[in-house]
Design goal:
The protein has 376 residues and is an all-alpha fold. It has a single domain, classed as Up-down Bundle (Growth Hormone, Chain: A). The chain contains 16 helices and no strands. α4 runs antiparallel to α13, α8 runs parallel beside α11 and α8 packs antiparallel against α14. The protein starts with a helix and ends with a helix. The C terminus is likely disordered.
């Protein structure tokens, strides 16, 4: 709901694609600044609290957002400031949330648990964008208020989680331990960087308000459908993976799915049909789910619990921030070259990255099992 509301609100206020780029940048900068500290905190303090406090901060920021939307001020600057707060809170809570799942689920069931948890998340996000579009058509501030209430509900659920995250004095306590771990594993670096550039180049999320308003002419309700389409595709594939883990040929499968993500982006860029655009976004979400399950399984199982927060922070910088930074890239290229060329270049760029990574990292072609990657 929030993502739909922010994109539509900012673009309706400015009618400038570059404003969407600034909105993405406002959410990325706090992540770049706080990632290492957030990962370190997730390994030193109780992870349950490290999840709860950022949720409280996001609820407060959204309440302020609702108030600003009610005032309907002409300046977009306060919106960017609130997005900075949201980005910082999200970045600080993400490593603890990622590191929490192995404390709940055993190693043998972890790959399927990753797929199950991701599917549950995607199913929830399917309804959100469509509902957000409907609520925004009635009143923008209602979307922000509803999102704030849901964050408060999430806060109450955070305290039902196990504590997790106790310091281990015998291990590496430095803030840069996660960086050293990723650098020492060439295959891990290849997987993270592949997703980084694929999402950075191929993501078209920031352009959806422009497509909905100016190209497909489907309004806020159509924008909600476009935003939920990747979640539908990801949820379907995730449910399949929850029943049957990825087996032989995981590396080749991941390369193929990233290429499929690029082709789906190219299809969306050139489409002038609403339903074809929805189908392309669903396909992109499904392809992305496969790479996410392989990557997350490897990162969490291979990492000692005392260092999972710091490694999760690096993973968040590579993957989570790439989506937000990709919004800046999409908005900037759309302002320079136009909306359709920007989306098309992103999809083609993803295909180029797949070709380069196939040659530069033969480990990706040779890896046979996702769990074997993690245990290496």
């Amino acid at each position: 709901m929030l993502n739909v509301a922010i994109g539509w609100y900012v673009y309706s206020l400015t009618h400038n694609p570059m404003s969407l780029a600034y909105a993405g940048l406002a959410q990325f900068l706090p992540n770049a600044v706080t990632a290492l500290a957030a990962g370190h905190a997730a390994d030193r303090f109780e992870r349950r609290k490290m999840i709860a406090w950022p949720l409280a901060a996001q609820a407060a920021a959204l309440a302020a957002f609702a108030l600003w939307a009610a005032v309907a001020g002409p300046s977009v600057l306060p919106v960017y400031l609130l997005l900075l707060v949201l980005g910082a809170a999200r970045a600080f809570g993400s490593p603890a949330m990622s590191a929490m799942l192995p404390n709940i689920v055993g190693t043998n069931d972890f790959p399927r648990a990753v797929a199950s948890a991701s599917s549950a998340h995607q199913i929830c996000t399917v309804a959100g964008p469509a509902i957000g579009g409907l609520i925004y058509a009635v009143g923008g501030r209602a979307v922000f208020a509803a999102a704030a209430a849901l964050y408060l509900f999430a806060l109450t659920q955070a305290f039902r989680l196990p504590a997790g995250g106790r310091p281990d004095a015998s291990g590496d306590q430095s803030m840069l331990a996660g960086v050293r771990y990723v650098r020492s594993n060439r295959l891990l670096l290849a997987l993270l960087s592949l997703d980084l550039f694929a999402v950075l180049l191929g993501g078209v999320t920031a352009l959806l308000p422009i497509y909905a308003k100016d190209i497909l002419a489907v309004g806020p309700v159509g924008l909600g459908c476009l935003r939920c389409a990747p979640g539908v595709g990801a949820a379907i594939v995730g449910l399949m993976l929850a029943r049957r883990s990825i087996g032989d040929g995981a590396g080749k499968l991941m390369l193929s799915c990233v290429a499929g993500f690029g082709m789906a982006t190219v299809t969306f860029a050139l489409s002038t049909s609403f339903w074809l655009s929805v189908a392309a976004l669903m396909a992109a979400g499904g392809f992305d789910m496969v790479s996410m399950v392989v990557r997350h399984t490897m990162v969490q199982i291979a990492t000692p619990d005392a260092m999972r927060g710091r490694v999760s922070a690096i993973n968040w910088v590579f993957i989570g921030a790439s989506a937000v930074l990709g919004e800046f890239e999409s908005g900037a290229t759309a302002a320079l070259f136009g909306t359709v060329p920007a989306a098309l270049l992103g999809g083609l760029g993803t295909l180029v990255v797949v070709g380069l990574w196939t040659m530069m990292f033969p480990e990706l072609r040779e890896k046979h099992r996702s769990l074997a990657v993690a245990e290496r």
